[in-house]
Amino acid sequence: MNETIIKAEKLGYTYEGDERNVRALDGVDIEIYRGEFLCVLGQNGSGKSTLAKLFNLILTPTDGVLELFGKRIEKDITDDEIFDIRRKIGMVFQNPDNQLVATIVEEDVAFGPENIGMPPAKIRETVDAALDTVGMSEYARHSPHQLSGGQKQRVAIAGIIALSPDVIIFDESTAMLDPNGRAEVMDTIKKLKNSGTTVVLITHYMEEAAEADRVAVIDGGRKVLEGTPTEVFTEREKLIECGLAVPQATELMLKLKQKGFVDTADVLTPYEAALAIAKAAGGAR
Amino acid sequence: MKDVTLGQFFPGNSIVHRTDARIKLLCVIAYIVGIFLAKSAAAYALVLVATVLLALVSSIPMSTLLKSLKPLTFIIIITSIINIFWYTAPEGAVPLVEFWKIKIYAGGLMTAVYMILRIACLIVGTSVLLTYTTSPIALTDAIESLLVPLKIIKLPVHEFAMMMTIALRFIPTLIEETNKIMAAQKSRGADFSSGGLTKRAKAMIPIIIPLFISAFRRADDLAIAMECRCYRGGSGRTKMNIKKLAPTDILLPLFTAAIIAGAVLLNKFVPFNIV
Predict the structure, then answer these.
(1) How much is the ipTM here?
(2) From CA A235, how far away is CA A86, in angstroms rounded?
(3) Residue of A97, A143, A157 to mutate for B, most B C-beta atoms under 10 A
């Protein structure tokens, strides 16, 4: 196994509210290895985004152990240390519109390098290379609002690549995109993975999880499943318990099974479901 | 709603377009000073010719420039009326027209014409020099670098420029959002186009509230995204594009200097006024 770059042990996080506290993460153990493509699956409110925010130190853990690049994160971490870690762990968010700062694509990509004080000539080089990686070079002088969702998200990714991080976390970066945009972003993610960047993809789309090296399923603030995509997908019952999108037909059949109308929910398509229901209803045909 | 832009930038490749925005910003100030220095007919003629020349060089269509004067019609009319009818004539001046209590003097007419010329040149000149030929981003950068000396007295110059950039960046996004919210409310029976002023204003509430909520959410997201991209304010930041002055950047300052010098000299040596 490769070097472990992110390590969490019994990692917990509680949001402190005015009326009640919300326990978003409740003792998660997870390791992320250099160069792998890990997918974190979970439904809304499962704690998967909190996990991402902890990895990037937007939040600091309320309990448990978090080690980033061998450095244990304590409450009293200084701003400079956070800055160093953020250079190594980039994050792409859900809404492409809310991550772009500048009015011109290439200026936006330059934002990160400018922040870390890179010399101007080097920034130029880095920006051109980053735009080339995501295939957006021809849009360098465009304004973000002229681009489609997928294109904007690729620009946002270029902005992170320009900081050349070791790990890029995608926090539901495909959730707001149309199918084309999603495909564009997934292609970019695979390209990054192949060029040696560690990728952590947080999503609730099963088809995206299928592309990963490893899948971890989070539910109710705990890790429920972990393994290769095939290993995880065979645990259908558990996935459904976690509220992860299963085909509608499967869901219908599960409900019918619960009420005792049918004996199996082992279907994926409406046609299969129809046959199963017909059979259960007395085998008319 | 789609075409709303801040300022009215017309991309082009004229010498006015190519001149560094910082230089243009300073030239605009000098140009305004030049206009206000003009006192005699000759000096006004010089300012007018210079403005027309600028407009021709910038290759901004004349019709656009004239249109930019349209919103000022009212102000121009009011100032003309004031100047014509409330002109205090010098001793012994003979009115051109006299009826009832109203006396119109040639001097009054001249002042009105000068006033119209001054306002027109002011608007056309500043639009040609700055807003029509400079992109908002270039303008923001120029303001930032011209204000840099104010950092000494602890003015947050970088933060101010960053705010302007972000505002420019989000205008189209928020316009799009407004259109979406309006469509959503209309589809549920909201009516924005009938009723009196109060009714219409009240009808805007269901648009403004969601728009604000979403703008705050965006601001929050953007702040996090900026921090994740190592943003820590202006200190230690570099810039990808460093603006270098080109040899041609000297032309506009020379031109505006000539206007000022010309106006002063003409005031002095050709103090010819029609009245």
Answers:
(1) 0.81
(2) 35
(3) A97
Contact yes or no for A101 and B166 at CB 8 A: yes
Amino acid making up residue B169: R
Give the gap in angstroms from C-alpha B5 to the nearest C-alpha of chain A: 12
DSSP-derived pairing of the beta strands B97-99 and A71-72: unpaired
Domains of chain A from N-terminus onward: 4-234 (3.40.50.300), 247-285 (no CATH)
Q: Name the helix (H) or strand (E) containing A114.
A: helix A105-115
Phi, psi values for residue A207, rounded to 5°: -65, -25
Long-range contacts (CB closer than 8 Å, 24 or more residues apart) made by B206-209: B206/B181, B207/B178, B207/B181, B207/B182
* Residues in A lying within 8 Å of B, measured between beta carbons: 56, 58, 79, 83, 86-87, 90-91, 93, 95, 97-104, 106-107, 110-120, 123-124, 127, 143-145, 156, 159-160, 163
CB contact under 8 A, B238 and A98: no
Tokens of B25: 């910003």
- For chain B, the structural domain boundaries read 15-145+244-269
**Is there a contact between A127 and B226 if contact means CB atoms under 8 Å apart?**
no
pLDDT of chain A, 285 residues: tens digit per residue: 578 999 999 999 998 888 888 888 888 999 999 999 999 988 888 888 899 999 988 888 998 899 998 888 888 888 888 888 999 999 999 999 999 998 889 999 999 999 999 999 999 999 999 999 999 999 998 888 889 999 999 999 999 999 999 999 999 999 889 989 999 999 999 999 999 999 999 988 877 887 889 999 999 888 998 988 777 776 777 887 888 866 666 678 778 888 888 887 666 567 878 888 888 887 544
Query: Which residues in B have their CB inside 8 Å of a CB on A?
Result: 136-137, 165-166, 168-169, 172-173, 176, 217-218, 221-222, 224-232, 236-242
How close B251 comes to chain A (CA, Å)? 28
Q: How far is CA B98 from each of CA A87, A152, B113, rounded to the nearest angstrom?
A: 81, 70, 20
**Nearest-CA residue of chain A relative to B241?**
A120
